[in-house]
Amino acid sequence: FSSGLSQTSVVAIKNQRVPPSRSIAWKEEERRIAFLPFHSSLPFPFFILDSNMNTCSYAICLLVLLTTTIVYCDEASSLEEEMEESMPVSKKPYQVPLLTDYDVYLYEAFQSDERYRKRWIVSEAKKDGADADIAKYDGQWEVEGTKKLINRGDLGLVMKSRAKHSAISTMLDQPFVFDTKPFIVQYEVQFQDFQECGGAYIKLLSASDKLKLEELHDKTPYTIMFGPDKCGEEKKLHFIFRHQNPVTNEFEEKHAKKPDVDIGKFFDDKTHLYKLAIFPDNTFKIFVDGELVNSGSLLEDFQPPVNPPEEIDDPDDKKPDEWDDREKIDDSDARKPDDWDEDEPMEIPDPAAVKPESWLDDEQQYIADPTAKKPDDWDAEMDGEWEPPLIDNPKCKESGCGEWKPPKIHNPKFKGKWIAPKIENPNYQGEWKPKKIKNPNYFNDEHPFTMTSIAGLGFEIWSISPDICFDNILITSDEAAAEKVAVETWQTKNQHENSVSSGSFLSRFAEAAEEKPWLWVVYGLALTVPFAILGYLCFPKKRDEAAERKRTDAPSPDDPQSSRQEERRNENESTEEQPSQAATGGSDAGGTESVSEGTAAASERDKEEEESKETEKKKVPERKSSPRRRKKTPKD
User: Fold this and answer.
1) What Å distances lie between residue 382 and 372, 379, 544, CA to CA?
2) Which domains does the chain have, with CATH numbers?
3) pTM, rounded to two decimals
4) Cys staple from 94: which of 151, 481, 515, 574, with CB 3.0 to 4.6 Å?
């Protein structure tokens, strides 16, 4: 039995001393067989087999458990391998959402290696202003499945390199022009190795005749930059758009306000869906995993603001030399008092202090440690002459030693340096500010939504953590398209990742059984057999009382010996009551006579009991006791 259970359980049997009269029963404090599950995948209850079961009941339970164990052991190894490989993976093969009926400018699911190599261009540029050994964009990109594959056949764009500049980009199917349609960009990010320091943002490249994807670098013009960025404890969710000044034609980055929620939870190893929606009414919304994390106005919630002020400080205006901006000045009429002594110290020796009598003037406060020894490896030439370390002189603990000095106290005559009091400045002219002039670069753009058209999309990032996966990149003007992609791709991943991370093995077992229906039989045995045994143990059959008494030597109700003992007990009680009654109500003679009659009756009954015992001994042969049987004591 134990060998059949060895792969899944440990059989703990305490003090296996089996009496001959009980083939598989233990003493009251030793009758326990505990089956303790150690397998982490298959749930199996904790059983305690009670000692009240007879031999047949034990045999049945052991046989059932052994059968279940054998069934499980035969499949345990292969089942565990199947679960490790296939449990996190959805049963259905991954299918790319069809978006033919929607207004889509780019949708990339990275399901075709041929399409990827044809459309996506790895940058060969060098980063300006960086050292030669790190200036090159030499990060590696691959299209592959994630480490925790969720959907069969689902691939993504993975940034493979650690601590390198990586850049890759592609062109949109058609440029997006900001006019009357909303702009929506949505993509998935998964930090497979979590994120220590680096970005995972996306750059939407501005349409230009000079745009060359193979030369993508940090200075390549973009219209929008959007996505997560983290380094240490600093976590950001960028939304930056470059706005062109219509007067100077220069571009300036506008940074959105911080998100309204804590975004730290989105930097784990799960797949997260980032979505930015910009609307023609100059409003925007940012979602992460379908949760609104930021929203506002392009005109009001960006720094610096889109529209500059109408007036600015005159850069050529200078503060006059005679301008007095001192609000208060020293009182020129004030004089230092004659008794003001600036030379008095802040503290003086306490004149009332007295040196303690036990003070030791000739003792040093610190002495050489007498227990210190020079290290064996001490080199006088290299380390110099060795000197033992100093310790506090134990003789100085009581009062002190060395030169005695009285303690310091505050000097009542101390006043410090005299400073003239302040008065209001009669010539105060206020704080000087340069004069305002009209802003030569002023403009009023009431529609910042009309940004520079977008022609391409790229990743230009640096990250310490490798294996950042990007997937399901979508640019559209149709909210329904973004919702469709989210439901058919990210939502499936999210459900599986949450079920796996929460430790829900039930869903994993159910999915495994969908592919191999015979596993339902194993699950059924694992669940029903334990409860059947528990029911059998909780509601045992009624035992043969006569056989049980014979096995345990317990007296039966008809046992003459038991009856005689009961009668004798009653007589003794009545005998004790009679003297009490005589003492309270009757004469001394009557009490003595009553006691004598009771004693005579008891003697008569004792004789009858002895005769009955002799008769029983002749009818029933004496039974030899087992050498291991516990002997009866007088107490029994």
Assistant:
1) 20, 5, 95
2) 9-86+516-538 (no CATH), 104-311+447-500 (2.60.120.200)
3) 0.54
4) 151
